[in-house]
Amino acid sequence: MNKLLNLIRRPVRYTYSNLNLYLIGTCVLIFLLSMLSPTINFYLGLFPQAVTEGFFFWQFFTYMFTHGSISHLLFNMIALYFFGTPVERRMGTTDYSLFYFFTGIGAGFFSFLIYRLTGQNVLLVGASGAIFGVLLAFATYFPEERILLFGIFPLPAYAMVVLYAVIEILSMGSVTNVAHMTHLAGFFFAFLYLTVRMRINPIRVISDTFKNRRR
After folding, report:
1. Which residues fall within 8 angstroms of residue 124, CB to CB, at 6 or more apart?
2. How many beta carbons lie within 10 A of that of residue 31, not counting itself?
3. Which of 77, 90, 162, 199 ranks highest by number of CB atoms within 10 Å?
4. DSSP helix/strand/coil, 154
5. pTM higher than 0.85 for the full model?
6. What are 82-92's pLDDT values in tens digits?
């Protein structure tokens, strides 16, 4: 067990190559292609029946680059740019890429299981699962950073993440709305990566920051 843990935690050489911009560019490109041919989302989005019957296993990876509307794309890409860029710079590109895809694939696989358990066959698109993971990482590394919620209300990053988590939990009024579970799964897999590999506990960071602000 210790050998496995040491392997998981093995440090990598720090590099910074701005992967985040490539992620954004890929999402924009695939969205433009989907406007020309909507069937692209069927092949690249996460479609449970296609996975189980057609063995489209790549969809656990590619769904993160698909989006259903221009507003969906813009919201996700703005969040990815402002939060993902400093997280990548702090982690380094190698760890950031591992973190981003681990979180996104994990959230997608969790959503797939929920779909199958509830008998749904809904197309899942969007980078939101991975981006919610990025939000947690940002709040972990920069808990005191001021964020303008909806461009109006100033909040420290740690409070923003807590608020988003509460909103997602309260929004799970029906098992048919799997997107909220996907977002929470993004938080969970990000927490797992940060705690196990990076040796930093987001809950402890947020709790300590809150306590220090009350003193």
Report:
1. 45, 46, 47, 63, 108, 111, 112, 115, 178, 179, 182
2. 22
3. 77
4. strand
5. yes
6. 999 999 999 99
